[in-house]
Amino acid sequence: MSTERGSMKVVLHVVGARPNFMKIAPILRVADAEPGWDNVLIHTGQHYDEGMSSAFFRDLGIRAPDESLGVGSGSHANQTARVMVEMERVILERKADLVVVVGDVNSTLAAALAAAKLGVKVAHVEAGLRSHDRSMPEELNRLLTDQLADFCLTPSRDADANLLREGILRERIFFVGNIMIDSLLVVIKHARTLSLATDLGLVRGEYVLATIHRPSNVDDRAQLEEILGALRVISNSHPVILPMHPRTRERVTGFGLETGSIRVMEPIGYVESLHLQDGAAVVITDSGGLQEETTVLGVPCVTLRDSTERPVTVTEGTNELVPVRNTQQIVNAFGRAISKVRSPRRPEGWDGRTAERIVQILKNSID
Ligand code: UD1
Predict the structure, then answer these.
(1) Which residues line ligand 1 (CB under 6 A)?
(2) Which H or E element spans position 13?
(3) Cβ neighbour number for residue 148 with a 10 Å cutoff
(4) Short-list 225, 219, 211, 214, CA closest to 257
(5) What CATH architecture is 9-177+351-366?
(6) Burial, 189: exposed, middle or buried (Cβ in 10 Å; 0-12, 13-18, 19+)?
(7) Which has the closest alpha carbon to 180: 60, 321, 100?
(8) Domain segments of the chain as ranges
């Protein structure tokens, strides 16, 4: 047993926040089938609510974490530091050979930094995305994680170009495609069988799904007021469903803003999100993942941001960027989006086989 175990590679897979879960699910599924790998799933606890975390484990069929670090909420420095301290301990205790991190949240950078400082190899899934806006915490996490990673696993060719421009060696860059789409393609059939939209009295193709949670949109009172103003205007002609992120709810309440006829809900799970996106006339969002999912589903998407780290969704997909300046601009963008014909797109490598490519590359490199 000990010799067998001795030849096993210990691979730590790290998740922390809501957008990480659909990225790790397909990787873990393929990795768990790898006979030479001892896979350890680590949940940092950055997100901890039922609706922000457990619901996603259930929806995506992810097994229970082997380690729960329970770091919870806090300032950026605090949260990042606590993940680093806990990760250092786990990496040493488990004698890790490789740490896999996904996306761009605080847990991603913290785990990568703890591993790199211990000389343990790091693989970053969704490497190379850049909004070129350093006021976004995620942009800092992306830049730094890619500098630390031994394997920069990219979802699109623009990401490869970004990394090369930053001086990252070509031999560290691997184009693998979009891991989000692996999960989407597994779950979409089930998502289409849900009755949620009908239960909410919504008609397919006639309602709007909105999600807003970026600090730049919700922490600024004037900005949030413009967005809610636009959603209220749109809700005069089309029902607007707004599952509300805890950060947004705190701000709406704190600023004393009106949601009026917007239909505010608790955060929804992954299957519900795909179900409501698939049936929507238009999606209005500031999420990264929804920009990609709407492209594959063919649903017009209005993204309330100045920039996107996912330009393929604009050049090849259904996405339009709309900087939040005033209510009317958002309403006008909605008007353009609603008149578009639904047309699903699959950019290169968005084919549901990204996890297989990732495990193949990592296997060849660490064995
Ligand atoms: C984080 C990610 C962001 C991602 C988003 C998805 C970073 C820097 N940002 O932002 O990229 O798009 O997750 O949701 O990592 N809260 C709860 N329950 C929870 C989690 C959070 O109530 O389960 C509340 C807390 O009050 C917390 C606030 O939400 O202070 C923000 O949470 P945090 O993890 O700091 O960042 P997000 O805004 O969720």
Answers:
(1) 17-19, 46-49, 52-53, 73, 104-106, 137-138, 213, 245-247
(2) strand 9-15
(3) 18
(4) 225
(5) 3-Layer(aba) Sandwich (3.40)
(6) exposed
(7) 60
(8) 9-177+351-366, 188-338
Span 216-275, pLDDT tens digits: 999 999 999 999 999 999 999 999 999 999 999 999 999 999 999 999 999 999 999 999
The span from the CA of 245 to the CA of 338, in Å, is 25
User: Pocket of ligand 1, candidates 82, 217, 247: which has the most ligand atoms within 8 Å of its Cβ, to mutate?
Assistant: 247
Query: What span, in angstroms and rounded, lies between the C-alpha atoms of 178 and 201?
Result: 33
**Is 271 in contact with 194 (CB distance < 8 Å)?**
yes
pTM, 2 dp: 0.97
Distance CA 360, CA 298 (A): 30
Helix pair angle (221-234, 246-255), 10° resolution: 100
Contact 244, 267 (CB under 8 A): yes
* Catalytic member of 47, 213, 245, 275: 213
Cα 164 to ligand 1 centre (Å): 31
Q: Is 2 a residue whose pLDDT tops 70?
A: no
47 is a catalytic site residue: no
Q: What is the 175 CA–ligand 1 centroid distance (Å)? A: 29
Topology adopted by domain 188-338: Rossmann fold (3.40.50)
* Residue 103 token pair: 């996306």
| Nearest protein CA to atom 7 of ligand 1, as residue | 105
Ligand 1 center to residue 52 CA distance, Å? Answer: 9
Atom 33 in ligand 1: which residue has the minimum CA distance? 73
Record the tokens describing residue 351, joined without a space: 């084919």
Q: Give 245 Cα–ligand 1 centroid separation in angstroms.
A: 8
HSE, CB side, 13 Å, CA atoms: give it for residue 20: 29
Q: Quick one: pLDDT at residue 304? A: 98
CA of 73 to the centre of ligand 1 (A): 7
Answer whether 102's CB lies under 8 Å from 110's CB: no
Instruction: Find the farthest-apart pair of alpha carbons in the chain and give their distance in angstroms, rounded.
Output: 68
Atom of ligand 1 nearest to the CA of 105: 15
Ligand 1: which atom is nearest the Cα of residue 137? 8
* SS3 of residue 352 by DSSP: coil
Secondary structure of residue 7 in the 3-state scheme:
helix
Ligand 1, atom 17, residue with closest C-alpha: 246
